Every structure is written in structure tokens, then in C-alpha cells.
């Protein structure tokens, strides 16, 4: 059973937003009272309870209107919060918090709902607290589960707003809507509509099943025919397969014999090919021998000695060649050493030239600084009109520090004079400006004084005019009063005569005695009526308890069915995730598991976010690294475009160029030497008996000598052009080498870029890519775990409402069982009573007697009231006329005072108007003087600003120029010009010495090259002799190889022997024909087999078609579906009828209970005699049908068994009372699990008697329900008498007062004792 503990309000309507302004209310049992004046914030308490339980705002109010106004709070935003502590239907302690925020924008106030939270403490384990947020669940639904009542009951019955408190007597449409919501009629109507729609769909489905069964029958028959065809084709395919196997067996021996004959034929072919190859090899050897013999004879004679002698000759020739090669290598080494020294000196010369170039550049810059300094000195001296310092050295224009300091001091003196002039100018203009400002201020003072005097005089004139008008009006009233005074005196005498006659006519004491007599009769009859009511209550209790037991047993059965359905729906999911279905405290266990999983999910989410941040950081670093590499690559490309980058590297290119230059130098020297040698050869060949100058052999004919001389002359003529070509190449290479030396610093930067920076960056990029891949893999793994846990949490959160409902159903089942036992114990031993109809007839008789007595009593009371009213009215009129008579007399006496005062005011008025006219004539001259003074001041300010800006600009310019001059002077002093000149001279001398040494070494290199050319000629001649001896040895080797090949040919001819190649080829052809015949037969059989296989595949494909596959099974299954669906259609019709009947019965029972409670409350509360009782009538609506009922509701009042609509026929007080009683009856009937009820201003429009009766009825209700632990009554009123009536019954010790604070006008709630009220 649910009950409220405490409520706190903050930032709502007139309740302040700060923590110190938070107001709290503790709910007492059984009554909590709030008292306060109108507008102090009482109704806000009901609105807050309604908002915290249902989430709805007051009628016609938006969220930004309900929250405390930011303008009033002087804040840009206001946060509001409502918090409620309660005990839910299961006995658990619950804390509910809803928060809001209102933000003041430029034109309006925006509203936002902040996250709401429900915290629940387990009643069995106080340390176990579970929370659920509005982001995870619907708090409105959770609250209905906690309180055990629907939203409609909370809104329309328990926490009904004051504006909607009379809803039972509103228009029929809204009344029907609210009763339907209370009875949850729309849910049952929707269920019946679903039954109808489902039945309609099932009928259509049965018809569809009948149509499908016809098609499935055809498919089943066709499937049987296809199966028979398939079995026949499979039998034929097995026969063909056996025949194909026999043909394959016949092919194997034939194929084997073909391979054996083929191997023999291939062997014969291979031997024939080898013999052909050997014959070709012998022919080639013979040809080579012949060529070698001709070559030997051309250069000498064939050696006739033995092989040993030939080898000795060859060895001696090789030794001589080695000696000459060693000598050539020694000379080449010397030449290489010279080249290295020349190269080193060239590099040294290049470095010295670079140093000399650097010195020349610095000297040039220094000369430019001298020129700039001199120009600046002249410019400053000219502009400042000071003397330029004299230069010590006319050539280099040196200045001493003292001269520069003196010049700087002169400039500073000039600047100080300039600044002094600026200050003097500023002071002078300030004095002029202050003088002008004083004139302006004096003009303003005079002008303001004149205007203030005019305003004061004008105000006095207006006051005098007003007073004159007032005096004229009072004088007219005096004249009127003198005429009215006589009329009043005549009226007073007439009324006094009427009062005397009225007192003689009536007797008030006799009327009061008759009223007391009828009051005593009414009291005696009501006592008898109470006895009859008690007997009727006992009689009806037995029947109501039986009806209640039947309803509770049905409710228990439905709850147990709901528990079974929830378990069947959620048991598999929860068993898979948790391990088992929680039978005890399932909601708590599920919430604990969700909390653990949420924490685990939070940790994984943090890891995932960290990994993503790391990945983004790495990708950002990668992007920056790629950009850096791109810039480095662009820089490398620029270097490569600016320089001719050698492909083999800088040092390798220089080494290669040095080698090439050395080779070219050697080649040029060799060519020049060759020309000299060729000239000597020609001279020797022109002598008598000439011999070859190389091998020293004689010539057989003179024409051979002439051919050699011509050849040498031709070669000699070609040498100069070759030398020029080689020298050109040499110069090109030397130029290239010099260019490389010049670009050495840039090459070093390029090599560092290529070999160090770019590889290092690329390596770092590779490592970063590896790190990014690892990070992405980690993110994928974490994401997988995250998704799995999130999926489990989603399933658990989806199951939470069902588990909450399950736990609520379990609790409700236990409660229903206890209530059933309690109700069963109530009817045990109940005594027999009179017949209920007889008791009702006696009650009606007594009620009619009471009504008749009350009617007479009301009539007598009305007569007494009318008599007293007439007498009191006459007395009031007489007193009123007498007071007016006194006023009129005093007014007539003041007439002379009014006349004298009027004349005095008119004289003052004429004088004031004359003074105003004079003052206004003074205003224009004063305004003209003020305007002239302001123009004079503006002119002075403008002149001052222009002059000061010019002088300040000169100050800034000369200061900057002086600073630049001092910097140039210090720069020239630091340069040390004479020392740089000495360094330049020494560098030039070093370059000249290095050039002289290079020239000496180049001369020595030319001599060494000539020696090298001579030794190379000797080696060439020796190589001809060595080649001749080698040819003789090669000739003897070729002759031996030819003999060996001829022997191999003889052996191959012996291997072929007696093999008959023609016979073998004939046999091979016969075997091939036989094999081809067998293959044709095999393929013919195989073709037939393939056709059958295609047919079988077609049959199988058709049988696997969805129309024929399992056609018989489908036919059977559809037949079962058709039968079961037809049965389900019949059952649905039964269920719909049963539900409709149950709903109608439930509606009738509840309305009987409601009307019963209404009758009791009306009899105990209403004090008038015009209405016996009221009831709620239900009538079938226009849309009712035989299968579905709809109801319209109306409130009727009964008088002498005559029924009338109460709407439009009752007074405002009766309307308020009827609405309160109906809400009390609905709460008594529908709030079984929630004993909370509230009334907001229940005494509105009620007279004192009905207020007292209402208080007594409420006290009786509270006393009857006070034994119920969860019963809580909340009453909000401004009527302190009503509160005293409730307090006198001693059903509450304390009450709350609601008021506004004097400081900030915010609502304050205080708790007081009833003793303070009295």
C-alpha cells in the first residue's frame, strides 16, 4: 500500500530557486492541512504533487509559465526541482526527483526538462539502493506502478486541480471522457476491436487456406509422377555406366602397347639426331682447324716441335709480358700519385678562392653601411640644424665613439627642445580650453536656472487652476446640498413611521419557538434513520463482501496468468545472459546486474574513447609527418632541379670524374706519343731492307711495305682530330668537376636530406602506421566487447518493465490472498438481518418525514429571516439618511470660506503668469551665448590637436633616426675593416702559390705519360708474339677433339644395329586405329549417359522446386492450419463475448459502489432540504451495439424519488459539494492501493452550515479510515474557521501555513500547532 512521506519544492511559481528557499512538507497520518491567504502558493503544492506523480502541468499552463520567472529572480536562468519521498505498493522506500530549467532569451523564456530520477530502497535490504533515470525508463509509468493507481485517477480524483474541481458537472463530452479514462474503457474497447479484427483476418485466412489446398493437391500428384520418371531414368543410367566401364577396361592394354612401340621409335629418332649433331660438330672442328692454320701461316710458321717445347716457349713469352706489365703499372702508379696531388691542390685552391670571395662580400657590405651612415648623418644634421662630425680617415670614413656620442647629444638637445615646445603648446591650449569651458558652464547655469524657475512657476499656476476648479465644484455641491437637506428630513420621518408599523405587525419570539420545535423533531427522526442505516449497512455488507471476494479471486487468477506469460516471454533471454531466471526479488537482482554491466560498459566506453583519441592523435601526427615528408621531397626536387645531381653520389661522381680525367689525360698523352712512334716507324720502313718495327720480321714484297707505310700515315693523320676531341672531353669533365666543387655545400645539404632526414621521417611514418594499425585493431576488439555488452543491456532494459510488472503482480497476488482471507473472515458469524427491501421502505418513510420537517423548518426560518431583514433594512436606511443630513449641514456652513479662497487664488494666478512671460523672454539670448562658447572651445581643441600631432610626429621620427644611426655605428665598429683587408691580401697570395705548385706538377705528369706510352707500345708488340704461340697450342687441341667426335659417331652406328623402323611404324598405326575405335564407342555411350543425367537433373530440379518439394508434407501442414484456424475463429468469438460481459458487469458493480458511497456522504454532509441525494446515472450511448456497449454519464439529484439533471439546476455551493462528494466516492472505490486524497479550497461557495457539515463529514471519513496505515488526507484552504472545526475534532496535532516573505515576496511554508491557531 503506497503512502507519501515528504515533499520539497524549489523554483516553482512563487517558490524561490536557491537552496535556502527550498520549502518542504511532511505528510501526516491521517490529515495534513495547509492554510494561507489567496495567492500565497497553496495550490502550487497540489500542482507539484500532480507533476511529480504524472508529469503533467496545471491546466492551460506551459512549463516556462510554471517555473519561477527569471525576470523576477533577476537571473538569466532559473532551475526548478520537485522531490517526493514515498512508500510504494510493495513497501519499498522510493525517492522521486523531477527537475526543470527556464532560460530567459531576448524575446521569450525557453523551458527544458532536466533528467528525472527514481531511487528505490529494498525493504528487506536497506543498504541496497537502485536508481533509474528518465533516459532509461518512463517515469510516469513507473509512478503509476509505485502508487498502484492510474494516471486518470491521479489527475481527476486524487490531485484534481482547483480549476477542474467541478468536472463532474461540466458538459457531457468531457464528463464521459474522464469517466472512460477512470474505468480504462478505451483499453477494453480496443481489445474488443482487436478481437473483431483478428477474427475477420482469421476468416479470410481460412478462405485463403482452402484455395491453397487445391493448388497443393495438384502439386502433390505431379510430384509423385516426377518421382516415378526419375527412378526409371536412374535405372537406365546405371546400365550405361557399366558399359562405359567395360570400354575403359578394353582401352588400357591397347594404350599400353602403343606407348611401348612409341618408346622404341623415339629411341631410334634420338640416336639419329645425336649422330647428326656429332657430324656437324666434326665439320665445325675441321673448319676451325683450317682457319687457325691460315692465321698461323699469315703471322709466321707452324711450330714443328713437340708439345713440351711449345709450352716452354709460351711460358717464356708470358714471363717477359709480366715484366713489362709490372713496369707499366709502376709508371701508372706514379702518374696516379701526381693526379691525386694535383686534385688535392685544386681543392685547396678552390677553398681559398671561396674564403677570398667571402671576404670580398663582407667588405662590400661594410662599404654600403658606411654610405648609409653618412647619408643618415647628413639628413639628421640638416633637419636638426646641427654640425656634422668630421671624419678621421677620408678613405674609410671612420668616426670615434666620442664624436658619435657628441652628435647624439646634440640631437637629444634638439629633441628636448622640441618636447619642451610640445609641453608649452599643450599647456597654452589647455588654458584657453579651460577659459572657454568656464564660459560654457556659466551660460549653462544661467539657462538652467531660468528654465527651472519657469517650471516652478508653471507648476504653481497649474496647482492654482486645479484648486480654483475644486472650489467651484464644492460651491456647486453646497448649493445642491441646501436643496437636498429638506428632502432628507422628510424621508427620515416617513421611514421611522414604517419601522413602527412593522414592529407592531410581527412577533419574532413566537417564530423562534416554532423553529426549535421542528429542529427537535428532525433530530429524533434522524436518530431513527441512523439506526435503519446501520441495519441496512449490515445487510448490504454480506452481499458486498461476497461480490468483492468474487472479484478478488478473478483478479488473483488474472495476475497469476500474467506472471506465467511474463516468465515464458523473458525466461530464455534472462537465463542466457544472467545464468538463471531470478525467482526471488527479480527486479532487484536484474537492476544489480544491469548496474554491474553498465559499469563494465562505462569502463569499456572509456577505453574505447581513449583508443579513439589516441588513434585521432596518431592520424594527426601521421598527417603532419606526411606533410613534412612532402615538403622535404619538394625541397629535394628543388635541389635536383637546381643541381645536376650525380646518380652515383657526390663523392663517387668526383672520384669517377677524376678517374675519367686521368684516363683522358693518359689517352691524350698516349695519342701524342703514338704520333711520334708512327713517324719513327715510317722512317724505319723507308730504309733499305726494312723490317717490321714491332716483331722485327722482314717483308716478302715491296708492296707490303708500302701498304704498311700508307696505313701508318693514315693513322697518323687521324691522330690530331682524335686528340682535339679527347681534349674537348677533358675540358668538359674538368668544368663539371669544378662545378661540383663549387656546389659542395649544397650537395652536403642534399645528401643530408636524402640520406638522413627523409629516411628518418619515412621510418617514423612506418612505425606510426604500425601503431595506427595496432590501435585500429584494438578499437575493433573493444568495439566488439562494447556491442556485446550493449546488446545484453538492451535486452535487460527491455525486460525491466516486464520484471517490474512481474514483481508488482507477485506482490499484488500476496496482497490479494491476504485480503481474500480477511474478507472471508468478515462473513463468518455475520447475524441474520431484516429484509433489505423492508429496511429500505422504512428508511424512505423516515427520509420523507425528515424532508417534510426540514421543508417546514426552512419555511419558518425564511419567514423569520425576512422579518429580521425588513426591520434591519429600515433601521439602516434611517441611519444612512441621518448621516447624510449631518454632512449636508456642515457643507452649507463652508460656503463663505470657499468664496474668499477662490479670490485669493485668482490673484496669485495672474501674478504667476506675468512672471513666466518675463522669464521666457530671457531664454533665447542665453542659448545664443552658449552656442558661441561651444564653437570657440571646439576651434581651440582642433587647433591644439593639429599642432601637437605635427610636433609629436617630428619627435618620433628623430628618435627612430638616432636609434638607427647608433646601430649602424656599432655595426661598423664591430666589423674591423683594416684586419679584413689584411686577410684578403693573405688569401690572394695563398691562391697564387697553390696555382704555381699545380703548374709544376702538371709538367711532371706530362713526362710520366710519355714514359707510359712507350712501355705500352712494347707490350703491344709482345702480345702479337704471345698470340702466335697460343694459336699453335689451340690448333693441336682442335685436332684432338675432331678425332674424339669421329669415334663417338662410330659407336652410335653400332647401337642402332638391326632395328626395323618401318615395321614398328606400321604396328604403331594399327594400334592407334584400334584405340580410336574404342574411344568413339566410349564417347557415344557417354553421350547417352550424359543425356540421361541431364534428364535426371531436370527431374531432381523440378522436385526441388518450392512447388513440388515436400508437397505432401505442405499439404498436410496446411490442412492442419486450416482446421486449427477455423477452431480459433470460433474461440475468439467466445472470448470477445466473455470479455464484453465481464466489462459490463465490472462497470455495473463499480457504479453501484460509487453511488452507494455518494448517498452516504450526501446524507451526512448536505444540510439543505431541497435535495434528498445525488447519483451518477449511466446510459447506453448512441454508438452502442449488441456486441459492444458505450456509456454516457450524468449527475442527477433526487427529491421525493423524482430525478432531475443536476447540471444547470444547482447553486454554486451545491455544485462544489457534489463535486467533492463524487471525487471522495471515486477515491473510495478505485484507490485500493493508494490511500491518498487531496482537496483544494473545498469551502468555496459554501455557506456556514454546509461548511460545518462538510467538516463533520470529513472528520467522520478520516476517523473511519484512520485505521488504514496508508490513508492520508491533504486539505488546502484559506478558511481558518474551517481549519478550527477540523482541529477541534483532534484528528491532527499540527498544520502548515503558507505565506509570502516580506523581503523577496517568495512563498514560505511553516509548521504550527493548533494551539497557536486558537
What does this structure look like?
The protein is an alpha+beta fold. The chain is built from 23 helices and 14 strands. The strands form three sheets. A six-stranded antiparallel beta sheet has the order 2-1-4-5-6-7. The chain has a five-stranded mixed beta sheet with strand order 11-12-3-13-14, with helices on both faces. It has a three-stranded antiparallel beta sheet with strand order 8-9-10. Strand 6 and strand 7 form a beta hairpin. Helix 8 packs antiparallel against helix 17 and helix 12 crosses helix 17. The longest helix has 115 residues. The radius of gyration is 65 Å and the shape is flat. About 0% of the residues have low confidence.
Secondary structure: elements and pairs:
Blueprint: E1 3-10, E2 23-26, E3 31-36, H1 42-54, H2 63-66, H3 70-73, E4 77-87, E5 93-104, E6 109-121, E7 129-133, H4 139-147, H5 151-158, H6 172-183, H7 185-299, H8 307-384, H9 401-505, H10 508-578, H11 586-642, H12 650-685, H13 702-742, H14 744-826, H15 836-893, H16 895-975, H17 977-1056, H18 1061-1104, H19 1111-1165, E8 1173-1180, E9 1191-1199, E10 1202-1205, H20 1212-1230, E11 1236-1240, H21 1248-1265, E12 1272-1277, H22 1280-1288, E13 1294-1300, E14 1307-1313, H23 1314-1317
Parallel strand pairs: 3-12, 3-13, 11-12
Antiparallel strand pairs: 1-2, 1-4, 4-5, 5-6, 6-7, 8-9, 9-10, 13-14
Helix pairs in contact: 5-20, 7-17, 7-18, 7-19, 8-16, 8-17, 9-15, 9-16, 10-14, 10-15, 11-14, 12-13, 12-17, 19-20
